[in-house]
Amino acid sequence: MSDDFEPSALDGVHQDTLAVRAGISRTAEGEHSEPIYATSSYVFDNAADAAARFCGDTPGNVYSRYTNPTVRTFEQRIAALEGAEAAVATASGMAAILSTCMALLKYGDHVLCSRDVFGTTTNLFGKYLVKFGVEVTFVPLVDLAQWRAAVRPNTAMLFVETPSNPLCEVADLALLSALARENDSLLVVDNCFCTPALQTPLALGADIVVHSATKYLDGQGRCVGGAVVGSLQPMDEVLTFLRTCGPTMSAFNAWVFLKGLETLRLRMEAHSRSALELARWLQQQPAVEKVYYAGLEDHPGHDLACRQQSAFGGVLSFQVKGGKEQAWQFIDATRILSLTANLGDAKSTIVHPATTTHGRLSAENRAAAGITDNLIRVAVGLEHVDDLKVDLQRGFAGLS
Ligand SMILES: *Cc1c(COP(=O)(O)O)cnc(C)c1O
Question: What is the pTM of this model?
Answer without folding.
Answer: 0.95
